[in-house]
Amino acid sequence: MIKISIDAMGGDHGPSVIIPALAKVATRRTDIRFIIYGREEVVRPELAKQPRLAAVSEFVHCEVAVRMDDKPSQALRHGRWKSSMWKAIEAVKANTSDACVSAGNTGALMAMSKFCLRTMATIDRPAIAALWPTARGESVVLDVGATIGADAHQLTDFAILGTGMARALFGIDRPTVGLLNVGVEEIKGQEEVKEAGRMLREANMASMNYQGFVEGDDIGKGTTDVVVTEGFSGNIALKTAEGTARQIAGYLREAMSRTLMAKIGYIFAKGAFDRLREKMDVRRANGGVFLGLNGIVVKSHGGADADGFAAAIEMAYDMVRNRLLDRIEADLDLFHARNPHAAMGRPAAAVEDQE
Amino acid sequence: MIKISIDAMGGDHGPSVIIPALAKVATRRTDIRFIIYGREEVVRPELAKQPRLAAVSEFVHCEVAVRMDDKPSQALRHGRWKSSMWKAIEAVKANTSDACVSAGNTGALMAMSKFCLRTMATIDRPAIAALWPTARGESVVLDVGATIGADAHQLTDFAILGTGMARALFGIDRPTVGLLNVGVEEIKGQEEVKEAGRMLREANMASMNYQGFVEGDDIGKGTTDVVVTEGFSGNIALKTAEGTARQIAGYLREAMSRTLMAKIGYIFAKGAFDRLREKMDVRRANGGVFLGLNGIVVKSHGGADADGFAAAIEMAYDMVRNRLLDRIEADLDLFHARNPHAAMGRPAAAVEDQE
């Protein structure tokens, strides 16, 4: 039995999309149970339409809902202890649930998750990991925007966190890992990236196949199962790829509707276009995973529809079932046992950040 | 009359692609003249096939050719004073040519260009600008990899350089400019980016319409005519977009060849697909422009074909004709006259870099 706590008030559409999403998942995964947090007057009517879901769910009324435009500090001030977002996270801390899923605003969800769950013992900062569709399948890319900048220690932490996620989701024993860098001969890369590369190579971990530096175009190729970078460039890479995909989809639509011949061609090839659309569909890889915390929190896109939110839940489900946190903890212990200097070398300020 | 100096030995294919490219341009632009630098035994035979080109070109034999895998320091050691790459750049310095185009390796070309042409008086570091195809047309994105990291002063320099290029190439009086950032509420952005934003807003230049921060997906949308960022994230954005475009082209090819219906549809829509391929074609926007130097240097993709190399030459031609360097110099003077603190605030080490 896997229990998932749901913030039903997040996202652009709230319970009207989230409850149908839960209903989809409940029919596909029979060993799942939900604890749904939200405002009674909007959640109850939706839940009443889904008797099968209601039978495997518990509902908890929360007076407060974090707004999509709340700043993290506002959200913490108004929403701590009592909002649906906070309660859904707190259920993970209390072991009432195994993972939390919210489509609420990223900044607020991260601030509350850090405050409530805290980072793992040897982790300075959490990261947000994205599941990136590639020519070969999918890769884990992190950090895509939890924090800006990362030193070598934080980059090695991200590598271990991402490796755990790839092992849990892809069923690979020893995922390949690359550090994102730029290929400019001698001046190649930032010192932090070079140092992280040295540390990962030396560690030579049984659970991680470190491959060296990769470049921006390697992400789409699927050159490695895990791509590690700091949050500024990771966020820019993710958004740039989304923008490019949307731009090309626009070109394609325009090209297929311009002439009669193209329109006829479109009718014949409609099945192929539908499959293509599915491949390019961001919903299939919906959700950023917060890694490095004492609990699993998945952030769904705010604009996700029921299929998108369902995909985010199923990702959380898979990570719980494949014991993501245990894997990460074991890898961190191993890494720090073999590399005591790695933990010792951490600046004191960064360690204090955890408090 | 516009004179372009050509390094005929650069690129994966050398003179066999570069000479036909020059021939294409020579028929389209009748007021262009070329000075071609390269090894006699490989350039002469190609040139002999193109009598119209030969009539508007001067050829200079150079014993040395910089190799594609030379490190910048190697290239400088072996190729300074005598390689075709160096000679083509030197022609710009000597005012024998108005701009230089090479498909040689980026690191070597940048090292030689800096050494030979030097940076403009108030510029710390040159940038590489890319012409990026967008849903609206094209945008200038810089720096895409000349150097890693940039402080606020360097980012404002890049904004002025990119604005000059957009004015010269797009014929817009007051291009819109955005600073690339990540949209994470309160912790939004690096200090350098915030400070650069303040400086550009205060400067309120007549030639630049500063719009504030943009995110990765704004590049493909064409939200602003110019997108400014430091070289690490700029290079990752560029390569990630190229990777995504290639990935989707692969999906499309696969989808259109999988079923008979799709194949029939493809035949009907072939014209539309050809137009689409043209739109997605990186050759159309081939070439990185080195900005901030006392001369125009355009780097063509090493793998470019004749059309791609021709596009790079025509970009150089347009920038010369529209007096790119004069525009940039005027803008820099204006900016520093109004913002003396900007020049004064520069760290001494950065100024020394120019020597």
TrEMBL record, chains A, B:
Main localization, broad class: cytoplasm
NCBIfam families associated with the record: plsX
InterPro entries found in the cross-reference section: FA_synthesis, Phospholipid_synth_PlsX-like
Enzyme class: transferase
GO biological process, one term: fatty acid biosynthetic process
Function: Catalyzes the reversible formation of acyl-phosphate (acyl-PO(4)) from acyl-[acyl-carrier-protein] (acyl-ACP). This enzyme utilizes acyl-ACP as fatty acyl donor, but not acyl-CoA.
The enzyme's E.C. designation: 2.3.1.274
Reaction catalyzed: a fatty acyl-[ACP] + phosphate = an acyl phosphate + holo-[ACP]
Name of the protein described by the UniProt record: Phosphate acyltransferase
GO cellular component, as recorded: cytoplasm
Name of one Pfam family that matches: FA_synthesis
UniProt entry keywords in alphabetical sequence: Acyltransferase, Cytoplasm, Lipid biosynthesis, Lipid metabolism, Phospholipid biosynthesis, Phospholipid metabolism, Transferase
GO molecular function, one term: phosphate:acyl-[acyl carrier protein] acyltransferase activity
Subunit text: Homodimer. Probably interacts with PlsY.
Organism in which the protein naturally occurs: Aminobacter anthyllidis
